[in-house]
Amino acid sequence: MDRLAASSRADGVIDAVRDAVRRVPLGAARDVLHGRPLGHPAHPLLVQLPLGAWLSAALLDLTPGGRRPARLLVGAGLAVAGPAAVSGWVDWAELRRPQQRVGLVHAAANITGVLCYAVSLRHRCLGRYVRGRLWGFGGLAAVGVGGAIGGHLAYRMAAGPDHAEPVAVLVPPGWHRVEELPEPLGLPEGRPAPARVGGMPVVVVRTGADDTAPAVLAGRCAHQDGPLADGEVVDGCLVCPWHGSHFRLDDGWNVTGPATAPQPAFDTRLVDGHLEARLRTP
User: Fold this and answer.
1) Distance of CA 195 to the CA centre of its chain
2) CB under 8 Å, gap of 24 or more: what pairs does 232-237 form?
3) Cα 5 to Cα 146: distance, rounded to the nearest angstrom
4) CA–CA gap between residue 96 and residue 14 (Å, rounded)
5) How much helix, strand and coil, in percent to the nearest 5, is found in the chain?
6) Checking DSSP bridges between strand 176-177 and strand 193-197, what pairing results, if any?
7) Of 208, 187, 221, whose CA–CA distance to 250 is shortest?
8) Tens digits of per-residue pLDDT, 156-165?
9) Alpha carbon of 275 to those of 118, 188, 209, 251: distances in Å?
10) What order of strands is seen across the sheet that includes strand 176-177?
11) Span 16-22, mean pLDDT?
């Protein structure tokens, strides 16, 4: 997997597929497919539906009298595989390049499994139950490989987790002086500036009058750890420069995806001309 993530052989294909996925006019449905309303990616939830159906079909294939329900479950798995695949592609298009390389193989394994199940269903409908079972077991093996690669992608390569979650643990409670920051009242309005609070990177944005404490959010994007200090402010939101997630400056809320979790926000105050910040309790 490490060699696969480092290989650039398929980068041309990745660029073409990524651009095609991003061009699909999904509108607000794109955030739903990312899982923003859930607060976490939707793809791991959606894949349980076809996998559960196909695993149940495999067990019925080993049981006398299980032909008809097994055929029904194979068809049901194919019917619900579409939304799971679409959510996966939408997430994949917003990953880092090493993750996309592994994700492409993950998708190829799952596509192989879907094709096997489609052939299996055809044989079952024609009464060729032995062939249908064999193709079904082949499909189960393929999606099993795809699932193993997906687990590596999620847990080893951190595709999907909230990258800002550790902030609540690593930033000590209470007020802290914002470090590595120029004169806070001299910051250009609406221009993000990097700083640190309790040793953690944050981004500071002055949005109001000169005597108003600037807004402070965690400095690395919850989606893929992008540097928010390199982003821009649009309509009261800080936009991640990597994948375009919009985080509200007032409270860190993820207004649009692909980020599925809010950005940790800080209460701020000015003390003797210095900016202090305290991590806000959700």
Assistant:
1) 26
2) 232/192, 233/190, 233/191, 233/192, 233/205, 233/207, 236/207
3) 15
4) 11
5) 50, 15, 35
6) unpaired
7) 208
8) 999 999 999 9
9) 62, 15, 14, 18
10) 176-177, 274-279, 265-271, 215-218, 200-205, 193-197
11) 96
pLDDT value at residue 279: 94
Specify the pTM: 0.89
The H helix count followed by the E strand count for the chain is 9, 10
On the question of a cis peptide bond just before residue 241, with omega within 30 degrees of 0, the verdict is no
The two tokens of residue 158 are 């951190």
7/226 Cα distance (integer angstroms): 22
> Which tokens belong to 36?
């923003």
Backbone torsions φ then ψ of 188, nearest 5 degrees: -65, 135
Classify residue 280 by its DSSP letter: P
Give the sheet arrangement for strand 232-234, strand by strand: 232-234, 237-239, 246-248, 254-256
What element of type H or E holds 267?
strand 265-271
The Cα–Cα gap between 106 and 124 comes to 27
Q: Which of 104, 99, 94, 98 is closest to 242 using CA atoms?
A: 94
- Amino acid letter for position 85: A
Structure token digits, residue 231: 């982003």
Residues in the chain: 282
Which sign, positive or negative, has the C-alpha torsion 254, 266, 40, 6?
A: positive
For residue 59, give both structure tokens.
């067990």
What's the mean pLDDT in 5-11?
Answer: 94
Mean pLDDT in residue range 74-83: 96
Query: Contact at 8 Å (CB) between 205 and 190?
Result: yes
